[in-house]
Amino acid sequence: MHKLQAPRGTYDVLSDQEEARHALERTAARILSAAGYERIETPAFEDTDLFKRTVGESTDIVQKEMYTFEDGGGRSLTLRPEVTAPIARAYLQHGMHKLPQPVKLWYVSSCFRYERAQAGRYRQLQQVGVEAIGVDDPALDAEVIAVADAGFRALGLTGFRLELTSLGDDTCRPAYRNLLQEFLFSLPLDDATRARAEINPLRVLDDK
Fold first, then answer.
1. How do residues 167-184 score in pLDDT, each as one tens digit?
2. If you write DSSP's letter for every residue of 115-181 in order, what string do you get?
3. Could you say which DSSP state residue 64 is in?
4. Residue predicted with more confidence, 85 or 117
5. 7: buried, middle or exposed (CB in 10 Å: 19+, 13-18, 0-12)?
6. Which strands make up the sheet holding 103-112, listed edge to edge?
7. 8-state DSSP, 101
8. Residue 38 CB-density burial (10 A; 0-12 exposed, 13-18 middle, 19+ buried)
9. Peptide bond before 81: cis, by omega within 30 degrees of 0?
10. If exposure means fewest CB atoms within 10 Å of the residue's CB, which of 33, 79, 87, 147 is most exposed?
11. Are 128 and 97 a contacting pair, CB within 8 Å?
12. Which segments of 9-154 does DSSP mark as H helices, in order?
């Protein structure tokens, strides 16, 4: 008789692990609520076009890793591979742009990605995250980093290091993109990689 098991790349959360998960959520709620973030939950699946338009046609997530299916009405739906796009959709759909800005939201959500299952990497994963929308301010980026650091410390994590990087401002980024494309197009790229370089050259840096 065939022995039924959880699908590859997934896991069960048993009772002895559930309290640790709840403790993590309570810690996240305490830290993030104190920083002015409110909790949001989005559907586990969305219209496929949402991820194609926001995550990007050239990304590995869209090209290789999404769980996409057609429902009974012939609509193309996708299990959420990440949460930023659904939150942006909710922000627009519910008129949050009319609220005092920035709108600061946090979530604990399951995400689904079809990628090679290995230690520490799953096809269904639980993600804690924040989104601060509506204000273009480096101070807000700094706040998000500080909140993450406070959360790690509150959970008792030690030995971690924050590594920060930047692609500059609205003047620097286009110039950097042009230089990167010029360099990439000088290489013997295959057709798929060249097409990716034309759409989003930074994604080529993820290409194995």
1. 788 888 899 999 999 999
2. ---BTTB-SEEEEEEEEEES---HHHHHHHHHHHHHHHHHTT--S----------TTHHHHHHHHHH
3. I
4. 85
5. exposed
6. 38-39, 103-112, 124-133
7. S
8. exposed
9. no
10. 33
11. no
12. 15-34, 48-54, 60, 84-93, 138-154
Most confident of 32-41, 57-66, 194-203: 32-41
Query: Across residues 45-62, what is the average pLDDT?
Result: 77
> Comparing C-alpha atoms, which of 36, 144, 41, 145 is closest to residue 100?
36
pLDDT given for residue 49 in this prediction: 92
Token pair recorded at residue 59: 């990304």
Distance between terminal CA atoms of the chain? 41
75-102 burial, b at 16+ Cβ within 10 Å, e below that, comes to eebbbbbbbebbbbbbbeeeebeeeeeb
Where b means 16+ CB within 10 Å and e means fewer, 166-197 reads eeeeeeeeeeeeeeeeeebeeeeeeeebeebb
Q: What is the pLDDT of residue 57?
A: 60
Nearest to 155 by CA among 147, 165, 143: 147
